[in-house]
Amino acid sequence: MKNDITLILEAASFAAARHSQQRRKDAEASPYINHPLALADILAREGGVEDASVIAAALLHDTVEDTETSIEEIEDRFGKPVATIVAEVTDDKSLPKEERKRLQVVKSATKSHGAKLVKLADKTANLRDLVATPPADWSAERRAQYFEWAREVVEGLRGCNPALEKAFDEAYASVLAVHPRGSEGTIA
């Protein structure tokens, strides 16, 4: 059995290796590993999460979806608790994008506590990135659509961690400061 620090460090190292050739969609094409590291930081510092399995799962949350990694490999290397959370937050890439997005909204309330924490940190990190360093090819309309969809996903996650919910709400409010809601209630 790995101790907590070893588990987290091994997950960070594994994620860094698996995402080493990937870049974020921002204009600077920042290293992809910055995203999982941001989730771990949000969980620990802002959410007060101390569960090493949740932190490790946050670091690994995109490995199955975006690299040649299987859930079985995650379980073999990091244990069933980590693999279970990673599996819960992994989209089925065989489905069309719109269906994957719909399922995230529909299934968010039924996720385990650990998966809710990771998903909430993920949406918070993504909103912050979209404000600070948006994808170079995303229009204001596409960003606005993402913000509204993220809010819908997070509604099903509420009640799992007030501090993380506050962090999300603050990130969302920063969007509204720049892009106020239109008459139909969506971000303009």
UniProtKB/TrEMBL annotation:
InterPro entries: HD/PDEase_dom (IPR003607), HD_domain (IPR006674), MESH1 (IPR052194). Residues 32-127 form the HD domain. It comes from the Bacteria. Pfam families: HD_4. This is Phosphohydrolase. CDD domains: HDc.
